[in-house]
Amino acid sequence: MNLPDSRKNEEALAKLLEESHKIRGVSLWKDAWRRLRRNRPAMASLIFLIGLGLVAFLTPMLPLQSPLDKDLNNRRFLSPSFEPITMGSREGLKFADGKLTSQLALFEAEIAAETAEALAINDPLKQAEQFESIQDRIRVEHPFNQLWNQLGSVSFKMVQIRVAIFGDYAIPSIFGTDKLGRDLLARVFWGARVSLVVGLVATLVSLMIGVSYGAIAGYFGGWIDAAMMRIVDMLYSIPFIFVVIYLVTFLGEESVKAWLESYGIDQIMIFYIIIGAIYWLTMSRVVRGQVLSLRQEQFVESARTIGASPMRIVFRHLVPNVLGIVIVYLTLTIPAVMLFEAFLSFLGLGVAPPDVSWGLLLNDGVEALSSVKLFWWVVIFPGAALAMTLFALNFLGDGLRDALDPKMKNR
Amino acid sequence: MKDLLGFLIRRLGWMAITLWAVYTVSFVLMRAAPGSPFSAERAMPPAIEQQMRARYNLDAPPLQQYWDYMWGILSRGDLSWSIKLEDYSVNQVIAEGFPVSASLAIFALVFAIILGVSAGVISAVYRGTVADVAMMATAVLGIAIPNFVLASIAILLFVFLIPLFPAAGWGTLRQVALPAICLGLPVAAYIARLTRAGMLESLSREHVRTAFAKGLPKRTVIIKHVLPGALLPVVSYLGPATAGVLTGSLVLEKIFALPGMGSHFIYAATQRDTTLATGMVLTYTVLLFVMNTIVDLAYAVIDPRVELE
Amino acid sequence: MTPAPGSQAHSSMTATENATDAPRQGSQPLLQVSNLKVSFKTDEGQVQAVRGISFDVREGETVAIVGESGSGKSVTNLAMMGLIPQPPGRVDSGTALFQGRDLLKMSDRELQTIRGRHVSMIFQDPMTALNPLMTIEQQMTEMTRLHLSLTKKEAAARAVDMLGLVGITSPEKRLRDYPHQFSGGMRQRVMIAMALSCEPELLIADEPTTALDVTIQAQIMDLLADLQERKGTAIVLITHDLGVVAGVADRVLVMYAGRIVEKANVNDLFASPRHPYTLGLLGSLPRFDTDRHEKLLAIPGGPPDMSEPILGCSFSPRCDFVQPVCHREDPTLQLKAEPTGAANLPVVQPHLAACHVEVPT
């Protein structure tokens, strides 16, 4: 080979290299996001869900009526109306001036006086006693606690902000009221909090179990995989709903409840875990299948050659690569879980009052439906809320699937 | 044939293991709950309570109870007496409820498959048309509405407003129809979506192009070359669908006041009728296992590449 | 340059579509495609996949269409047979006369009587081109029963004959097998047997050997050549592999970016390519007779973006011989040389190329 020839080759090589630099790599996620953005229903769903999440989180700050304050005398099954309403105006509450703000001012003044009195006591034992009785009084008589029933500390702060902003104003009962005279709009909003949290937490539980299980089975393969998948097959044939009903009744037992509470575990938490523990089966199968095919890829091989531990390979190299499909399944598991919550609530085994969930509302609504008079609003509004959310989750799931895996796209 | 026999035998073995596991778990859960099943009721004369305890073998040590009960099931198929329905054995309760639940489930599944597959096929063949969009939107709606809401609305519409169906009762086709439809609709919706996706996937396969290139009419291509492949995901969904229908029947039997197993089960579980609940869970497990086995067989029949393991 | 004889003599060599490319002797054209344009609607806009191509196929000859993936060679044939999905695909213009009737204007029902019966196709990947859920028998007989109105028995007997013909041992037994029980090469044999079972006049083979091992490739090509000799079927062979072409084709069309850029008898093309792209293709083909120090040459760059209108020659950005005129004017097919060895060939193809430049030979 002579010199000019090799130089020519080098030039050609340089040209090729330059060309390859011009080809811009588009990351999988960027690409998927670009495709998702073009999918109108999916984007609308995403925006709806983000909005819903925000609203649910901020519910205590919104000018809603109390979701729990009953009025059996005057407000049972009121149809939707725009009649203005003042917070704390119900007679049974006996609020000062029939207003929340006035009562709040009065109550706080009283508490302040009592606290001052307590501070004046010299005997520390008696003083402590006095403080305790003040706390008791707050728990029972604080206007917030009368209207909202034992708010958590964050929600309490949020209600304070709400009163500071909106005062005694509340949105009228545009969704009507239920059989106990409670405002349905407020109940739908507060119910969203529980339903969404159940959906999210239970799905996350199923995610953790399913992904770990599937990834480990897929990575190790061989008899470990065979045994682990056999177990999944077996679990598929167990009618889980029945086991769940067992468990829920078992856990609902007073003594069991007390025993659990002594460990600081409350019932709703158990509820999440149970539901999550059922829905991991499909997730584990999907992840296993993906990992099984990824295992053959070069990057796993190279990770192994540089001495990465199996667990590191599974969770640092394989799991991130199945994230796409996992997200798709997430958006499909959340609706399933929310429906399951509704289903259990219908059977009287789900979220227990005074907590509100959409399932519980729907159950109330359905009970009201079967009576002779048509109280349509008690079922339509919670039903629409649930249906719209599930609708959105389904569309988002479809959109994500199309966006993340164009090969799976069927359009 | 030999493959098939081996497969069935292996499956039977797995079913036995599963049943044993389910039996053990429900035994432990039921017995571990504090108090005796009788404690909730009004005070019982000690003599009667003793008699009752003897009848249910509650005086034996727990392990003994575990073995005795299991032996009773294995040797005589005897699921013991129901604790709350005092004059009935568990076998009797199941024998009464089973036909109701089974026919409800079968009607619902058949309805769901027919409706779902036809909707899915039409939707895929006329992809992008108004019919397609409308059907798929309905399908999502069907998936997004809990079936007890659907059932309640259906009762309101078709029993009270337009009296097409009787409100309750059991036995005639007209009485089965409405609960079966309500039970089947969400499943139909899911099947429609699966079928449509499967059809579109199948339509884009190369062998379908081959079929067209062979000069086969569109109808033949779709029925013979596209549909079988498209139905594979639907077939595998029938296992979970059965579980879903059994689950849903709990709710529908309650709403339509049907004397099926589902209503008994909820009662049994919430009232701590341990024997009845255990018997029912075992029955449902057998049902589900049989259905899953049928599904696997059907899959292997449709797809020759699948071997029965 | 000599004007082409016959009715089209008056049109000059500048006409892309019809003038000089008509072969000057041989039988009547079986298939006559002119000015075919096909486009696809994609996310990036309307992609012109086929930008006006014309060719014809005579009875019993083998025409090879060569080009890299995306050059429009498969789309041309699929469009002709009404097999591109519409939408997103669309035939914008052109005619494809088969035995005098325009395939592009036929109804679905009319096309069905042509497909498989008179024009058969075999596809690239025999792994996916056969229905995995049906036996070979079902797949082979449904066609002959439909087109030739054979009974089930007759159809099965014919299928056995055909399988024997393509070299499958104990065909009676294998009829009841499913595609996954065959190897890749065997499946392609089954595809060929199936495609020929109605004795079509034309066989379109779309990359029939690409997915196969090299040794199997040769066997399949030999089989095709052998069957052609026996049955007299005309073959359109679509491939990106010039090596495959040399052995079997009579005439070669080279496609680039949805156009035919060179058209010649096979020997002329290999002996003296007249288009820089063909030259590049030949340069990237390993040969036995070259110095082993000589490097295989890759054509730098990639094919143009077909969603944009192309200004000038579509190959100009990659061309070693590029002239200023190439960026301005789109060259049309023009006569570059008279065919050599014309007497031995069934069809005589003047050597045409769409290039402004005289490529050194």
From TrEMBL, chain A:
Organism whose genome encodes this protein: Rhodopirellula europaea 6C
Pfam families: BPD_transp_1, OppC_N
Subcellular location: Cell inner membrane; Cell membrane
The keyword Zinc belongs to this UniProt entry's keyword annotation: no
Family the UniProt entry places it in: Belongs to the binding-protein-dependent transport system permease family. OppBC subfamily.
Record's protein name: Oligopeptide transport system permease protein OppC
Lineage: Bacteria, Pseudomonadati, Planctomycetota, Planctomycetia, Pirellulales
Domain of life from the UniProt record: Bacteria
Gene Ontology BP term (one): peptide transport
GO cellular component: plasma membrane
Segments traversing the membrane: 42-62, 194-222, 234-252, 264-282, 321-354, 374-397
TrEMBL record, chain B:
Source organism, top-level taxon: Bacteria
UniProt cross-references to PROSITE patterns, sorted A to Z: ABC_TM1 (PS50928)
InterPro entries named in the record: BPD_transp_1_N, MetI-like, MetI-like_sf
Single Gene Ontology BP annotation: transmembrane transport
Domain ABC transmembrane type-1 intervals: 98-299
TM annotation in the entry: 12-33, 104-126, 138-164, 176-195, 281-302
This protein's UniProt keywords: Cell membrane, Membrane, Transmembrane, Transmembrane helix, Transport
UniProt keyword RNA-binding present: no
Cellular component aspect of the GO annotation: plasma membrane
A Pfam family that the UniProt record links to this protein: BPD_transp_1_N
Membrane topology: Multi-pass membrane protein
UniProt-annotated location(s): Cell membrane
Keyword Transmembrane among UniProt keywords: yes
Principal subcellular localisation of the protein: membrane
Signal sequence coordinates: none
PANTHER family for the chain: INNER MEMBRANE ABC TRANSPORTER, OLIGOPEPTIDE TRANSPORT SYSTEM PERMEASE PROTEIN OPPB
Protein family membership: Belongs to the binding-protein-dependent transport system permease family.
Protein name in the entry: Oligopeptide transport system permease protein OppB
Organism: Rhodopirellula europaea 6C
Organism classification: Bacteria, Pseudomonadati, Planctomycetota, Planctomycetia, Pirellulales
